[in-house]
C-alpha cells in the first residue's frame, strides 16, 4: 500500500512528540521507563492516529477499537498518546507517579481509557482475548490491539493466550510485539532473532508479520494486513531499538527503569528536535467508531425450585443457576477450563453456546479473558476446580487492582472431595481471594443459597469468588429465602445456647448434625451459616458471641486465611476469641466421610469442641 507522504511526515512528528513527552514526564518524576516508551513510539503513533477507530472524548465508547498496554511500564507513552489525542492536558503529563495523580507508574482503570490494570507482564494478551470475544458477543466490528514487549513473551500466559486466540479464530485481535531486544537486566531471550519470533507465533496459528518498527510505511501496511486477515489473529513483530531517537540511549543496555536527568533530557530534546520534519497537507484524523447500539436489558432471574431435603451438590446448583442467569441477562457469559461437566457450567453451554468460551487447561488465559470481557460490559463467570485458581493467582491480584467485574467459581473445595487426593483439594482458596480487600467471597451450603448467591454475585459491581462443593448436601432453605451479600443465616437458635458453631458449605451440614446430637444430650448450641465470608456480618457474629459465650468455627480449609480468620478479625474489636476447627495437615485420598472426620471437621469433632473433649 502506497502511503501519502503527508501522512508519513505527520506520524513521524507525532512519534517524536511522544518520545519527548515520555522523557519529560519520567524526568519530572525522577523515575520510570523512558527508553521502553521510545522504542514503541512509531508503532503507537501509527496505531492511534491512522489506524484505530475511537472517540478521544469518550474512551469507553462500546463500539470503539480497544488498546491494551500490556508492557505497563511504558505507561508514560500511553498517557502521552491520550494527551496527543486531546483527552489529557499536556501539562498534566508531568504529574506522572504523583500520589495526587491517576497517571500511575503502571496503568489502572482509574483512568477512563484503561480497560485492565497492567504492569505484571504477560497479562495484556489474555485480557485482549476477552475484549475480542466481547466484540463477537455484541456483534461489533471493533478491533483489539495489545502492545507487548519481547521480554514478556517468555511468560507462559502469553502462549496460553496465543493458543486460545487461534482456537477462537479471533481475526479482530492484533498483538504488537515491540522487539527492542533489551530486558531489565540483560538482552532478551531471542534478541533480534526475528525469524524465530515469527516461527513461534506462526506455529501457534497466528498471521505473523516481521517489520522494521521504525519504518512508518511498513507499520501502516502491517496494520492493514492485520485488518484484512480473516480467520486468525495477527502478531506484528516489530524490530525496534530501545531508547530510539537519542544517541546516548538508542540500543544501549542499563537504561531500563532509569529516568534522565534534566541535563540529559535537554540533550535528548536537542537531538529529537532535529528529527522534526516539515509537514504538508492536512493533519491525520482519528477515524470515528460506529454509532452505539443499546444492549438488551436484563430481566429478573428465575427463582430456585427445590424441595427441602433434596440432595443437591452446590456445584450442580451453580450450573442450574448460571443457565438461568444466562436466560435473564445477555451480558452473562461462562468460561471453562475443560471441567465443565464437573463444575456443571455445561448447563449454560447447552442453552447459550454463543456465550460459552472454552479455554481448555489454561487457567491464566481463562481468568485474563474474563477480565477483558468484564472491561467491555460482559458479566463473566469463569469456573474450574478451586485448587487450580492458584495458577492464576497473579491474574486474580491484578483483577482486584483493576476492580474488574469478574465472578470466579471454584468447585471441588476441601478434603470433602474425597478420593482424588490433595492435589485436587482447594484448602487455601479463601486465603488467596480474601487477601484482596475488594473481593467478595461467597460460600453457599445448599442449592437454594447457591442460586440466590449467583444472582447476588451478578448484581454486585466488582470481583467475586464463589466456592462450591462436590458432595451432595440437603436443601435446608425455602425457595423464597434471600441471601444478601454481607449477611449470614442463623439456622439453629434457642435462648439456652451455650456456644455458637459457625460453618459454611459442607461444614454447615456437619454443624447441624452436631447440633442435633448435642440437643439429644440436653446441650443447646447456635448454628450460623456464614455464606458471605467477605464482606462479613461482624455485628451478628459479635451478638452471637456475647449471647452464647463461645464462638467455634469449622471449615474445610487450612487454618490460615479461611472462615476462622475471617470471624476472628470480625469479633476481635469486641474482645471475643474463636475456637477454630480446620484442616491442620496435608490430607490424603479417602472417602469424603473418612477425610472430614480424620482431619477434624466432622460433627464428632464439633461435639467434642463444644463439650471440651479431645
Plain-language structure description:
The structure is a single chain. With 614 residues, the protein is an alpha/beta fold. It folds into three domains: 5-274, Thiamin diphosphate (ThDP)-binding fold, Pyr/PP domains (Rossmann fold, 3-Layer(aba) Sandwich); 311-474, 3-Layer(aba) Sandwich (Rossmann fold); 489-610, Rossmann fold. The chain is built from 20 helices and 19 strands. It has helices at residues 5-29, 34-51, 75-85, 124-138, 156-167, 194-203, 216-228, 262-274, 314-328, 340-343, 346-351, 363-375, 393-402, 429-434, 447-459, 506-520, 538-548, 563-571, 592-598, 603-610, and strands spanning 66-69, 144-149, 173-179, 207-212, 234-239, 311-313, 332-336, 356-358, 379-385, 407-411, 440-442, 464-467, 472-474, 489-492, 500-503, 526-529, 532-534, 551-558, 579-583. α1 packs across α3 (75-85), α2 (34-51) crosses α7 and α16 (506-520) crosses α20 (603-610). The longest helix is centred in the first third of the chain and has 25 residues, at 5-29. It starts with a helix and ends with a helix. The model has no long low-confidence stretch (mean pLDDT 97).
Amino acid at each position: 500500500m502506497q502511503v501519502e507522504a503527508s501522512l508519513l511526515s505527520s506520524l513521524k512528528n507525532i512519534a517524536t512528540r511522544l518520545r519527548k513527552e515520555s522523557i519529560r514526564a519520567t524526568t519530572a518524576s525522577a523515575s520510570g521507563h523512558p527508553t521502553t516508551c521510545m522504542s514503541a513510539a512509531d508503532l503507537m503513533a501509527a496505531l492511534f492516529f491512522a489506524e484505530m477507530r475511537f472517540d478521544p472524548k469518550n474512551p469507553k465508547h462500546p463500539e470503539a477499537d480497544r488498546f491494551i498496554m500490556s508492557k505497563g511500564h511504558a505507561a508514560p507513552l500511553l498517557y502521552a498518546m491520550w494527551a496527543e489525542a486531546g483527552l489529557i492536558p499536556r501539562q498534566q503529563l508531568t504529574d506522572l507517579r504523583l500520589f495526587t495523580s491517576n497517571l500511575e507508574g503502571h496503568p489502572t482503570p482509574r483512568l477512563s481509557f484503561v480497560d485492565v490494570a497492567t504492569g505484571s507482564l504477560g497479562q495484556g494478551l489474555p485480557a485482549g482475548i476477552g475484549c475480542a470475544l466481547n466484540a463477537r458477543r455484541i456483534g461489533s466490528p471493533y478491533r483489539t490491539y495489545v502492545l507487548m514487549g519481547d521480554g514478556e513473551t517468555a511468560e507462559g500466559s502469553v502462549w496460553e493466550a496465543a493458543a486460545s486466540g487461534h482456537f477462537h479464530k479471533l481475526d479482530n485481535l492484533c498483538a504488537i510485539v515491540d522487539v527492542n531486544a533489551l530486558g531489565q537486566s540483560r538482552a532478551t531471550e531471542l534478541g533480534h532473532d526475528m525469524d524465530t519470533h515469527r516461527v513461534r507465533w506462526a506455529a501457534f496459528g497466528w498471521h505473523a508479520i516481521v517489520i522494521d518498527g521504525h519504518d512508518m510505511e511498513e507499520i501502516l501496511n502491517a496494520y492493514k494486513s492485520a485488518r484484512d486477515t480473516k480467520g486468525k489473529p495477527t502478531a506484528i513483530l516489530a524490530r525496534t531499538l530501545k531508547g530510539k531517537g537519542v544517541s546516548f540511549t538508542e540500543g544501549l543496555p542499563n537504561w531500563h527503569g532509569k529516568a534522565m536527568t534534566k541535563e540529559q533530557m535537554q540533550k535528548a530534546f536537542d537531538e529529537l528536535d532535529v528529527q522534526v520534519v516539515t509537514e504538508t497537507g492536512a493533519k491525520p484524523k482519528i477515524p470515528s467508531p460506529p454509532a452505539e447500539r443499546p444492549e438488551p436489558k436484563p430481566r429478573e432471574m428465575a427463582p430456585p425450585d427445590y424441595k427441602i431435603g433434596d440432595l443437591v451438590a452446590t456445584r450442580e446448583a451453580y450450573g442450574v443457576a448460571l443457565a438461568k442467569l444466562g436466560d435473564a441477562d445477555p451480558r452473562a457469559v461462562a468460561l471453562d477450563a475443560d471441567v465443565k461437566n464437573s463444575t456443571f457450567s455445561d448447563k449454560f453451554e447447552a442453552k447459550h453456546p454463543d456465550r460459552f468460551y472454552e479455554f481448555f487447561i489454561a487457567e491464566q488465559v481463562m481468568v485474563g479473558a474474563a477480565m477483558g470481557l468484564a472491561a467491555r460490559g460482559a458479566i463473566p463467570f469463569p469456573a474450574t476446580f478451586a485448587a487450580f485458581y492458584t495458577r492464576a493467582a497473579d491474574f486474580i491480584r491484578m483483577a482486584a487492582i483493576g476492580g474488574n467485574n469478574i465472578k470466579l467459581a471454584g468447585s471441588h473445595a476441601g478434603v470433602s472431595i474425597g478420593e482424588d487426593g490433595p492435589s485436587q483439594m482447594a484448602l487455601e482458596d479463601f486465603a488467596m481471594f480474601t487477601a484482596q480487600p475488594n473481593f467478595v467471597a461467597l460460600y453457599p451450603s445448599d442449592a437454594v443459597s447457591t442460586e440466590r448467591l449467583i444472582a447476588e454475585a451478578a448484581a454486585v459491581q466488582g470481583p467475586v469468588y464463589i466456592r462450591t462443593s462436590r458432595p451432595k448436601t440437603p436443601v435446608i432453605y425455602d425457595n423464597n429465602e434471600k441471601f444478601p451479600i454481607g449477611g449470614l443465616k442463623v439456622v439453629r437458635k434457642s435462648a439456652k445456647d451455650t456456644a455458637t458453631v459457625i460453618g459454611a458449605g459442607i461444614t454447615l451440614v456437619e454443624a447441624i448434625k452436631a447440633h442435633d446430637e448435642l440437643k439429644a444430650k440436653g446441650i443447646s448450641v447456635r448454628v450460623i451459616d456464614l455464606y458471605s465470608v467477605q464482606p462479613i456480618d461482624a455485628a451478628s457474629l459479635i451478638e452471637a458471641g456475647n449471647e452464647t459465650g463461645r464462638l467455634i468455627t469449622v471449615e474445610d480449609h487450612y487454618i490460615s486465611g479461611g472462615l476462622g480468620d475471617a470471624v476472628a478479625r470480625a469479633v476481635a474489636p469486641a474482645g471475643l476469641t474463636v475456637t477454630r476447627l480446620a484442616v491442620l495437615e496435608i490430607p490424603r485420598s479417602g472417602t469424603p466421610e473418612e477425610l472430614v472426620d480424620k482431619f477434624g471437621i466432622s460433627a464428632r469433632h464439633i461435639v467434642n469442641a463444644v463439650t471440651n473433649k479431645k
